[in-house]
Amino acid sequence: MQLFNSVESLNIYLEGCRNEAKSVALVPTMGGLHEGHLRLINKAKECADVVVASIFVNPTQFASGEDFEQYPQSPEKDIENLEKRQVDALFIPEISDIYPQSQDSDYDFGELAQILCGISRPTHFKGVAQVVARFFDIVKPDVAVFGEKDYQQLAIIKELVKRKYGNIEIVSVPIIRESDGLAMSTRNNYLSVKERVRAPLFYQVLRAAREDLESGKDVVLTAKRAITELSESFVVDYVEILDANTLKEITPKSKEIIIISAVRLGATRLIDNIVFRSANV
Predict the structure, then answer these.
(1) If we measure between CA atoms, which residue out of 229, 239, 280 comes closest to residue 259?
(2) Residues 135 and 233 sit within 8 Å (Cβ to Cβ)
């Protein structure tokens, strides 16, 4: 695995790859890698000849008072894990590389960025789009791979590609879970021992909501029940049941349903979702 800290050196490497007609896949991360990230690497290796991973904790997607300064980092372990997965190139840039003065920051995704996590984190998705666009401009990948745990983020990135990068294929990987069902996340490192024992209840409630919907129960009542049950153990940000392809209200034409939620357990914010085929299909 080759390590790059500058845009110039990475571009020279990638130019050589393209001169050999090799396709390139990008896996952007903020580090603190776990098995969920490494599954993205596996998928990227299936999709392209050369895999570029990046590690960059992006300041523009953190609001004031969030955990930018404390975000879990484990660079030595991350490099070791990426080498084991035979990543071709690792890009660890400086902030000045990602945010030169000319970098565009005008990313407005309308309602898509204002619902769900966008309500409590109104600047978050603008920052996500800004950093992903910059990585796309630098790497110019044929394929970019993202996880489905950050489902709204995935939808924003797909919209970004539709608007600006029609030649990039976005590939997504389903949520990877711990043995007790908790969705893998770097922020799980924040959980205390007692909180970690309680955390799997999040997925259990969402799974029960899916069972209710599949048995024909009302969408609104199912969401209310999930909120009530989650509120016993968590501070609930939202629980929504939506069309998975549009993140809007379910219609008779909806082919896939998503139950999507964000909660707080102590100081830790957790997100999760379940996507499944509509009974109408």
Answers:
(1) 239
(2) no
Closest-CA residue to 139 (of 63, 221, 50): 50
**Which distant-in-sequence residues (6+ apart) come within 8 Å of 150 by Cβ?**
271
Put simply, whether the predicted model's pTM sits higher than 0.70 gets the answer yes
DSSP structure string for 115-158: STHHHH-TTHHHHHHHHHHHHHHHH--SEEEEESSSHHHHHHHH
What pLDDT does residue 102 have? 59
- Residues 6+ away with beta carbon under 8 Å from 182: 188, 196, 199, 200, 202, 203
pLDDT of residue 281: 46
Parent domain of 190:
186-277
End-to-end Cα spacing for the chain: 45
- Joined tokens for residue 130: 């800004």
Burial 99-124 (b: 16+ CB within 10 A, else e): beeeeeeebebeebbebbbbeebeeb
- Pair (222, 118) in one structural domain: no
The CATH code of the domain that includes 15 is 3.40.50.620
Spatial distance between the Cα atoms of 29 and 45, rounded to a whole number of angstroms: 16
Determine the 3-state secondary structure of 111 from DSSP.
helix
Torsion sign over Cα 34, 149, 181, 232: positive
Per the residue annotation, which of 4, 24, 32, 37 is the catalytic one?
37
Number of domain units in the chain? 2
Q: Which two tokens stand for residue 277?
A: 């085929």
pLDDT at position 280 = 65
Which residues in the chain come in under a pLDDT of 70? 101-105, 280-281
Same domain, 242 and 138: no
Residue 181 lies in a domain: no
Residue 37 annotated among the catalytic residues of the structure: yes
